[in-house]
Predict the 3D structure of the following.
Amino acid sequence: MSVQETSTDANTSLSDLRELVREFVEERNWKKFHSPKNLSMALAIEAGELMEHFQWITAAESRELDDEKKAEVGEELADVLCYSLAMANEMGIEIASTLQKKMVKNRLKYPVEEILGRFGHDDPRPISKD
Ligand SMILES: [Mg+2]
């Protein structure tokens, strides 16, 4: 299935999105520019553009963006995802299994019973019994 403007996350597969990005790159003959080095840099740059929307505002303000600002943030998030997918395409990385394996590692690294309500292992605050 091809991705349309009316597509939703629920009816679009990761494979559909990878193909959308692959087609875009191939149509422009940009594969020659898509080394893992270049793609990792482009991804970080887009992450920086995403962060620009939150620079100098409070955490509370960042949760209450108006629709226009939220749409702009969504576009930067899409840019980050595009480069993530392009990098996976270029390197032949299987995203679903890689993410699943990484979440298994994360669950071991941050066990719920140890981490719940804390920032991490190094969080100096005493564990709350609440
Ligand atoms: Mg951008």
User: Anything to note?
Assistant: Helices lie at 14-27, 36-52, 59-62, 67-91, 95-109, 112-115. Residues 95-130 form one domain. The first helix runs from residue 14 to 27. DSSP finds six helices and no strands in the chain.
